[in-house]
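Look at a sample.

——
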Amino acid sequence: MFDSLYQDFTETADPTRGAPRLKQMRGKLRAEKLDGFLVPRADAHQNEYVAPCEERLAWLTGFTGSAGFAIVLRDKAALFVDGRYTIQAREQVDSQAFAVVPLDQTPPADWLAQNARKKGRIGYDPWLHTPAQVARYEAAARRAGAELVAVEANPIDALWRDRPAPPCGPVALHSLKNAGEKADKKLARLREGLADAFLVSDPHDLAWLFNLRGADLGHTPVALGFALVFRAEKPKLFLAADKLSARVGAALGALADLADPQDLPAVLAELGRKKRRILFDSATAAAALTQIASAAGAEVELAQSPIALMKAQKNARELDGARAAHLRDGVALTKFLCWFDAQAPKGKLAEISAALALENFRRDTGALKDLSFPTISAFGAHAALPHYRVTEASDAKIGKGVYLVDSGAQYLDGTTDVTRTVTVGPPSKAFVDAYTRVLKGHIAIARALFPRGTVGAQLDALARLSLWRAGLDFDHGVGHGVGSYLSVHEGPARISKMGMVALESGMILSNEPGYYREGAFGIRIENLVAVEPRNIAGAERDMLGFETLTLAPIDTRPVDAKMLDADEKAWLNAFHARVRKILSPLLSPKERAWLKRATASV
């Protein structure tokens, strides 16, 4: 029987709690003389994964997705979710208490402008919103004739009696062998472009810049903290002392003056009194911090973190680490797919047992530090939910049909993310058609050649063209950036309709087109790719392409080979030949035989 170290399948959502907690919330707001309150799913760093103590949205509404926003007014309340979560939200939330509103139809700011009462006072926690977000909701409140009001204490915290304590995981040093560049060299590069001072508010930037990793959040090895980097002074690093061993403290102390995060507001106020110019990361800096600095007299500048692009362009050591991590991970995933192929037809597997098996194959590598996100193990109709989370309550038995597994791992040398969709028994004609179209989109991205300066939005359509020809599409991006033993979702580059950052050599991104038929099946085929230079005879521009990093077979049983052109077949056969050649020596004879069949030419 398999067990888990990194996943919890307990169902925490309970729609029956929504109405009584909403009633408590409104009572608290009346006591604070507020007519409404904004409830984002966020922490003071705008992290994707937040600590349990920051799950205020889930506590209030019952919704446990990784992205959402609620607005509570005296007479109505709404939960806003994107297309990934509309079905999940309907299942987890009391619709009598909270209206579930699709983000693409009605943004929260528009809803606030339409529903806030005139002269109403709408509260918000300035530690959970960026300045741009605050400006957007201030404008919405003004349109309604209302006022947006910052609160000193979040009212949910007073109501949440059993709220978990803040995390205090140990900080570790990330070795030069894996980082590829010393922290003092990174600091020197960062200082070159600074006018005065920069507040590092993104824990991923902090981890990369100082070559440290932490244990404050699940699935992402970061330490919650801040840093002030000055052009001509020693940096200040704000990390709780309890997280630092003597050795780690000494190493970091050689790079920066150490302080407690609670000291940051006073330090910013002092810089303000000195009329210093401070750059804040527009994507992650809390409005509370910019408000403190500005009120004290600082010149506040908001812009994209200068670390974001530096971090996204992996150096040679990080790329070698990514290749090693994907080799290790490919062996584990291939072993799992072989095992699954043998076990699934027996009818004894379920979504949780399959997820546990994959985790254990990864743990058998001896190098697994964590999963890079909770495994999406989805059979049948559940696969139509792009961000499905299996629980003990939803755990479906796997029989004949479609199984989708989206999973990833954190290793010291790299982060992985891979999705495979496999069939148990003969697939339907509709599934074969859609699956082959998704595969054609995946291959189009993998084979893409593009001039330097191309942005992700210019490539996005390549993955959708075959689906569009059949009147089909999917509601998520084609690809996101991936960190180096950091976040599995890393900016600033992405392949999506909104991806406006140029792709640069060394960036690692996902290639994951999909298709989802509600109530029936879901399809996603995902590999990670690295941007690399391409030499093309006679080329008049510097050209780039993708190196596919992921090493695991793609199920070809549902492929209609007649729908693939010669170049698509050549790519698929070459990919499988490479997978077979590299992985076969690392597998058992039974697994090698299975892999040979799974990677046979189409």
In short: The two ends are 36 Å apart (CA to CA). The mean pLDDT is 97. Residues 129 and 281 are 12 Å apart (CA to CA).
